[in-house]
Amino acid sequence: MNRRSFITRLMATMAAPAMPLSLPTGALAAAKAPTAALTAGATSWAQYLQAMHNTCTPTMLKSVLNLDAKAAEVIHGNMVSQGVIRDGNQVVQKVKDHVKSYLEGDDMPQTRPAVSDDLEVLTDIWFAGWHEAHAAHVSNDLIALRDRDSLRIRMERMLVDTDVVGPVGAPVGFCTIAGDEIYQFYVAPEARGNGTADALLAAGEKRLIAAGIEEGQIYVLPENPRAQAFYRRGGWADDVVQEVSLQTLGDPYMQRCLIMKKHLK
Questions:
Q1: Contact 236, 218 (CB under 8 A)
Q2: Which CA distances in Å does 183 have to 163, 177, 201?
Q3: How far apart are CA 255 and CA 243, in angstroms?
Q4: Structural contact between residues 75 and 61, judged by C-beta atoms closer than 8 angstroms
Q5: How far is residue 40's CA from residue 16's CA, in Å, rounded to a whole number?
Q6: In this predicted model, what pLDDT tens digit does every residue of 30-68 receive, in sequence order?
Q7: C-beta separation of 215 from 264 below 8 A
Q8: What are the beta bridge partners of residue 240?
């Protein structure tokens, strides 16, 4: 939506006085005089933001008002001080603090290194999770290579690089690293949504850091938006989509994947 269309929508929605098309000029004037009252135009924009969002940050104002960062900071401060909007910075910080507290709190599921008694259950979790997430989007050739027996052999080799959540012999999820990768990462359905996945990913990242890895990577199918959203929430970002070499018990298998990365140090 362009600026003129936005103004038209604002006038219709709020029945506000016509806003001057020179709003950025007025906004910049307010920036030069921080203690001055907001201009009528800026107030109308604030009313719109209040009605549609109730909360905003200087970055949001910078975008919608087409201002430089300093002007956006001044107008944002005026809006907050006058009670027109809530300070989005505080809201964002509270969310960050809540997530940090949750991840570091005593109620966070505890991880531990995998042991041989976990092998069979971990194989079942891997087999079921892999087919749930991937079978509909890959070739029959790859599906045939992901039978339970082959995964069990590979899981046994991976135990030394694997963290799990759950009692010995009854884990509910695992995370394995290999080189600079979060290599295999699966959580049983009954353990989803309770912090198990967050705890396991954090454990995997700690292993990478301990191994001296500064930038980790994860391979994700482009057709798996749920996994992508989870990793983005943890600070992982998209890089490229390309053919990558997937490990099997035989020759590597080439598969198109999204490579997500994160700076760990």
A1: yes
A2: 12, 5, 11
A3: 5
A4: yes
A5: 10
A6: 434 333 334 444 555 555 555 555 677 777 777 777 778
A7: yes
A8: 259
Instruction: Identify the residue whose tokens are 């995997």.
Output: 204
Whether the full predicted model's pTM is greater than 0.70, yes or no, is no
Pairing of strands 237-246, 173-178: unpaired
- ∠ at Cα 156 (196, 160), nearest 5°? 65
Q: What is residue 135's three-state secondary structure?
A: coil
Separation of alpha carbons 5 and 265, rounded Å: 45
Q: For 3-28, how does the pLDDT look when each residue is reduced to its tens digit (9 = 90+)?
A: 555 445 444 444 433 333 344 444 44
Helix/strand/coil for 171: coil
**Torsion sign across C-alpha atoms 66, 61, 8, 47:** negative
CA 26, distance to chain mean position in Å, is 37
Q: Which long-range contacts (CB under 8 A, 24 or more apart) does 201-207 make?
A: 201/175, 201/231, 201/234, 202/103, 202/111, 203/111, 203/163, 203/175, 204/163, 204/175, 204/176, 204/177, 205/262, 205/264, 207/161, 207/163, 207/177
Mean pLDDT for back-to-back runs of 10 residues, the chain (265 residues)? 49 41 42 40 54 68 76 80 73 59 66 98 98 96 97 98 97 98 97 94 97 96 93 89 95 96 91
CATH superfamily, with its number, for domain 111-263: Gcn5-related N-acetyltransferase (GNAT) (3.40.630.30)
Please say whether the beta carbons of 223 and 137 come within 8 A.
Answer: yes
Angle at 57 between CA 29 and CA 77, to 5 degrees: 45
Residue 77, H or E segment: helix 69-81
Q: At 217, list the tokens.
A: 């990577």
Domain ranges of the chain: 3-91, 111-263
